[in-house]
Amino acid sequence: MKTIHESQRAMRAKRQAAIDRGVVAVLDIGSSKFACLILRFDGGAMPTGDDGIGSLAGQSGFRVIGAATTRARGVRFGEIHASPETERAIRTVVQAAQKMAGVRVDHVIVTLAGARPRSYGLTGEIDLDGTAVTEADVGRVLSACDLPDIGADREVLHAQPVNFAVDHRTGLLDPRGQIGHRLTTDMHLVTIDATAIKTLCHCVQRCDLELAGIASSAYVSGIAALTEDEQELGAACVDMGGGATGVSIFLKKHMIYVDSVRMGGDHVTGDIASGFRTSRALAERIKAVNGGVVATGQDDRDFIAIDEADEPGAERRTISRTELIGVMRPRVEEILEEVRASLDAAGFEHLPSQRIVLTGGASQIPGIESLAERILGPYVRLGRPLRVQGLPQAATGPAFSSIVGLCLFAAYPQDEWWDFELPTERYPARSLRRALKWFRENW
């Protein structure tokens, strides 16, 4: 764990150094597209809520001064499968964003969509002997949480304290200065496949960039697409990307669960291409222009051309929109059923609110909201990212939730256990269901 601790601290230091210099890049490596934004920090105070531990505490104002996207290369299921292709795409999108911004960036913060994330709820407690809680006590109680046996092939991505209690006073964001006899904490730990994160780091470094942070795509999408009330009362964000669908659950403005379904919009495109024997490029265009998952009486009379190009004398191939929906709907249903299974495993039904927000590029398929209400529950809405100063209009749609959330993650990082001085390196397994039980009983 020492290696994880030190590497995460090093990235935090690089992020802060880049922000102090005024410019940092954020990069979303997706299965369908790569997006890069260049952020300029002006040093002005941003409006914030509570400045407690783990809150999205503002550090400085920022605006977007450069933006670019490019087609994804070498990525499947949200993970890098062909490093040389991914490196070329990273160079392309970062250089384009730098050209627009008119500056060079050395530090980049990156999202990770796949890599099979797993969530753990950890608990720690220490004695205080009736004294006020100090910074050192926070480090001691975090170190009192034991890490479960995550396996040699796993790496810790996030480890965030989500609640503190002093004696019987619970729900504390920041316990420092509180006087009592016992300090307890609940922490959310996220692990991912070690190989995926090492490959990502290697690709970024090969592009002559310093890695200043890594975040779960499902996590940052939730930051961008959920309202403050939804994050407070409890809600799930379903980020429907190209190769993977991220699932994150928030409560009391903290992420308490994350998962990833290894299917997304690209699988719908693949079904169209194979079902109607056409190219993936045309299938993607048909999905975007004519696609849907809920049929109407008009769809039998609505015909779509599926030929690549008209040839002299060749008979034009067409399909009805009903046939197209017949191919798209089963795959979308399958994705949503997997999301439902993930939410059930997390105990989502026990949260105070049952709100589910769909975002990501694949959430734009017409009719998906009503289909999701049938499979996931009645409280479903479509979510768009928060507006960020300087963001181009073209980057304000659901497909850009993760990159906008990454901007907020860069500017307002939540505290993680490596931000504190930890006297020991011990960490206790607690199931996520136990953590959710605690939230249900105490909040």
Given helix and strand content, the structural type is alpha+beta
Basic shape: globular
H and E string = HEEEEEHEEHEEEHEHHEEEHHEEHEHEHH
Gyration radius from CA atoms, angstroms: 23 Å
How much of the sequence lies in strands comes to 25-35%
Average pLDDT confidence is 84
Note down, in words, how this protein is organized.
This protein is α+β, with helices and mostly antiparallel strands and 443 residues long. The protein has a domain of 74 residues. It contains twelve helices and 18 strands. It has a five-stranded mixed sheet, with helices on both faces. It has a five-stranded mixed sheet with strand order 14-13-12-17-18, sandwiched between helices. The longest helix has 26 residues. It is globular. The C terminus is likely disordered.
Relevant terms:
alpha+beta; disordered C terminus; 18 strands; five-stranded mixed beta sheet; 12 helices; 443 residues
Question: Which helices and strands, and how do they pair?
Answer:
Blueprint: H1 2-21, E1 23-29, E2 33-41, E3 62-71, E4 75-76, E5 79-80, H2 83-101, E6 107-112, E7 118-127, H3 135-143, E8 154-166, E9 169-172, E10 182-193, H4 194-206, E11 210-216, H5 217-225, H6 228-233, E12 235-240, E13 245-251, E14 254-261, H7 265-275, H8 280-290, E15 303-305, E16 318-320, H9 321-346, E17 355-359, H10 368-376, E18 380-382, H11 401-411, H12 432-442
Helix pairs in contact: 2-4, 5-11, 7-8, 7-9, 9-10
